[in-house]
Specification:
single chain, NAD(P)-bd_dom_sf, alpha/beta, 7-stranded parallel sheet, Rossmann fold
């Protein structure tokens, strides 16, 4: 199935995890894909096996608006248009508010929230031309709270509400804006958690489908929301969590 033939997509945080899986999925469905991230070597690894004529690597720090604006210009210069902006880049420092540092707060806000704002702002003029769409990567942590992740929760809560607001502001002009809200997903960002098997087992007990998400699970939802199959869906923060939210986070009885 090639739902994106002739379409141009930017994916931030494309060097690993959800971003890498998403970029490859768009490429497999016919899109021209711009891979954005801070480390060229990781982006090159993602690009392996993708069609070279439909792939562009752009080293980008999403915390810097001018670099995100340059990213959008590079996409349009190379491929002539922009149809989908996927704002995925993120970090997740741990610690209670009196323990994690002020620098941690500034880092997570600059990447997880400012980075999404920068991507939406820079991409919107081009998306208005193509009646394209945005998919932000929020989190179930943007819909509720977590222990030891207050900074991340605050940033992702901002992403979720920014998504709703932009959907209202731009829907009449043909631009859809949605977000996916993954639960725990096996990526480089969460690698340290998987060293604690007891923790992972407890988490798995809270998920209706009985397993932890893989990056391809989240990528499939992102691509769905970006496709014409979701043409009447906007302003949605879609939990992609295996039923975690349905259970209110409670383990089985």
């Amino acid at each position: 199935m090639e739902r994106f033939t002739g379409k141009v997509v930017i994916v931030t945080g494309a060097g690993s995890g959800i971003g890498a899986a998403t970029a490859r999925r768009f490429g497999a469905e016919g899109a021209s894909v711009v891979l954005a991230g801070r480390t060229r070597e990781k982006l090159e690894q993602t690009a392996q096996g993708m069609e070279p004529q439909r792939t562009l690597i752009q080293v980008t720090d999403v915390a810097r608006l001018e670099q995100v604006e340059a990213l959008v210009r590079a996409a349009v210069d190379r491929f002539g248009r922009l149809d989908v902006m996927v704002n995925n880049a993120g970090v997740a420092p741990e610690g209670r508010i009196t323990e994690a540092s002020v620098d941690d707060w500034r880092q997570v806000m600059s990447i997880d929230l400012d980075g999404v704002f920068h991507g939406c702002r820079a991409a919107m003029p081009e998306l208005l031309k193509t009646r394209g769409n945005i998919v932000n990567v929020s989190s179930v942590s943007g819909l509720g709270g977590d222990w030891n992740l207050s900074f991340y929760n605050a940033a992702k809560g901002g992403v979720s509400n920014l998504t709703r607001a932009l959907a209202l502001d731009y829907g009449r002009e043909g631009v859809r804006v949605n977000a996916v809200c993954p639960s725990l997903t096996r990526t480089d960002l969460t690698e340290s958690m998987f060293e604690d098997q007891a923790l992972i087992d407890r988490f798995r007990e809270r998920i209706a489908l009985g397993r932890i998400a893989e990056p391809d699970d989240i990528a499939a939802a992102i691509v769905l929301l970006a496709s014409d199959d979701a043409r009447f869906i906007t302003g949605v923060n879609l939990p992609v969590d295996g039923g975690l939210c349905a259970s209110n986070g409670q383990p089985p009885q």
